[in-house]
Amino acid sequence: MRAEIIAVGTELLLGQIANTNAQFLSQKLADVGVGVYFHTVVGDNMERLLQVIRLAASRSDLVIFTGGLGPTQDDLTKESVAQHVGVGLETNLEAMKRIEDFFLQRGIVMTENNRKQALVLAGSHVFSNDFGMAPGMAIRHDSSTFVLLPGPPSELYPMVERHVMPYLIGLLPQKQVFHSHVLRFYGIGESALEERLLDLIEKQDNPTIAPYAKEFEVTLRITARASSAEEGEALILPVEKEIRDRVGQYVYGMGEDSSLHDVLVTELGQRGETIACAESCTGGTLASLITSVSGSSAVFGGGIVCYTNEVKHQVLGVPEEVLHTVGAISEETAKLLAENVREKLGTTYGVSVTGVAGPEPSEGKPVGLVYVGIAAEGKPTVVKELRLAGRRHAIVGRAAKFALFYALQMQKER
Hints:
Mean pLDDT: 94
Strand order of the largest sheet: 2-1-3-8-7-6
Number of helices: 15
Largest sheet: 6 strands, mixed
Low-confidence stretches: none
Structural class: alpha/beta
Helix content: 40-55%
Distance between the termini: 50 Å
Number of strands: 17
Oligomer: single chain
Shape: elongated
């Protein structure tokens, strides 16, 4: 099945919003073995919409539209598709009641143009909008299936997960299960990971191997096409074992929603251990990541943002001699910060981050030089030196995640 995604909205062409819907839909379609061949963005113009629709229908089996289902005059997706397939629009009573109830519950007078949101293509399959007003819909015409979805991601994502994907799976020529394992990596870049696995990626067939970078991390999806989940698992396991044999030291977790801070908090909780952090250049980012996880209060002893040398010395006990000789940005300072914050807050682990986030060098040391210290009860303190590239926010983000990764590594070694 050849798929095409058409995003409708002049605001996309003007760069006012990013086309994240296309990325999300491409990933969801890939999960079930549907290849996306084209992404198109078109403004709110009937003539240009019709041109795009005709082209898409000539080359794609599945055409998915996002946006243009709202109440205003420039919301033209339904009208354009209706004209192309030669059907009218009709009111969907369930959607109309949902819209009326929305305004009634909030005590707001509903303007007449909101009734437009309840219109659907006559004879179409309707997808309920559980988080908004305009329903989605699908209709078959000639050799193509057209799927129309709302633009706001808060409405589109759950609609796709709950209603659209089961519908699309039903369109596939034979009953298949697409079974996946998702491996999460840190400490290795996407290009380096791909190079280590290049022969596996080049000869992939079933299962497939797809690496992609996201938020300073690399994710690897292994997907098998099979007649059952059990058969898919049997296909994936030998491939996953080979990957782990080669680059397993960089794997920190599994699952699409897994994150370094989620995994660390879970592991600490299961072992009854705790952690504290002393942050200089990351300015509280590490503590923020940890405390964003539900249940972190049971494992997080606290954090100290020691941005100045005064705080490093007066609160965390780094000797002035160390700060004046080797400096705040040094292996020695990172070691002392990690050890002292652990002792001061009485935790199993202490993690420190000190470095130069930029944009200017500091202490005569280059932007991107970062030291991460990890102190653990009953073990020698470890300090890692990093040479990070990028702008200030990227260096801060990567440094905080390296600190989480190294804390996980030390935890596994205890």
